[in-house]
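Quick note —
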Amino acid sequence: MSNYPEPETWQAFLGQFIENPKEKARLAKAVRVRPITLQRWAEGISRPREDNIRSMLKNLPTEAYPLFMRLLLRDFPELLKDELPEDYFRRNIPAEFYARVLSSLSLTPQPLYRQSMQDLLLQQICKHLDPDQHGLAISLALCMPPRLSHKVRSLREIGGLGTPPWPSDLAERLMFLGAESLVGYAVEHMRPYVINSKDDLTFCPATWTAFERSAAAFPLLLHTHVVGGLIISSTREFFFTEPRLSVIEAYSHVISCMFEMEEAYPAEDIELQVMPPYAQQLPYFHTYKRRVSLKYAEAAQAEQMVTFQHVRQLVWQEIEDELLQLPLETGVPD
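Predicted structure written out below.
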C-alpha cells in the first residue's frame, strides 16, 4: 500500500488493501466472509460487525495495523474500550510463574541468578502481553552508579527482548537514556507513564523508533529507592489498556526483587541529564570491549586486585562522562 496516498477513511484503506487479489482472498478467508463482502464494506454498501472488525485487525500486516486502527476509531470508538478483545487476556500473573521465580531464587547459583532471572522475566512478559506476536519490545534500564557527583545522571539499558518485527535479542540496540526519554521521566517522577499513540498530546518526552506506535515506562523501586526502569513498546496504538498496565506494574514489582539495595538510589539522588541520540552513542560502544581489556591489563600490570565486574563498571562510567560532554546541539534524533 506504500504506492498509494494515505487514505482518509477505513473504507478507503480497505479498498486499497484488497486491490491485491491474493490479499483479498487471504483476508476474506481469515475473516470468514466472501470476497464480495469485503468489497461491499470498502464501498460503504454494508457495514461489518465488531467481530469482523477485530478479525480484520488480527489478520492485517503489522505495518498496516496502526493506520487502520486509527481510521476505524472514527466510526467504532467502542474499540478503545477493549481494543483487541480483552476477554482472553489473563489479568493476573499466573501463580505457577511465581513458583518458578521462587524456585530460581532458591536453586540458581548466585553468579548465574541475575541473568537467569532477567531472561525468565522478559520471556514471561512477552508471552503474557503478546502471545500472538503482533510486535512487542521490552528492555530494562538501570541507574548508572555515580562516580564523583554522587548523583545518578543516566540510565543504561542492560537487556531486552522482542517479538517480530523486532529481533528477539535487543542487545545490539541497548543505549544510555536520560531526561530526554520516557523511562527517564518515569524514573524521575517515580511513577508509570504511558503514550498510547504518536498523536497523543503529552508533556512526556518521547523519541519514537522504527515499528513503535505506543510505549510505556515503569520505575523499578526497591524499598522506595530507584533501581531503574522497565520500558515496553508495541507496534499497536492504544495497546496499553488498564488490564495490561495493571499486569505490567505487577511484573515491575517482581523485577525489582532481582536487585540489591546498593543498586538502588533515593529520589533526591536522581538528577538525570539529557543523553545524546543512539547514533552518537554507537561509536563509543564499538570501543567498549577493547577498553575493558586494556583497563584490566593495566590493573594486572600494576598488581591491583580488581574484579571483571568492577572494570566493566569503570568503563561504562567513563563512556557516560564522554557522552555527557558531547555538545547537545549536534544531536539529531535517531
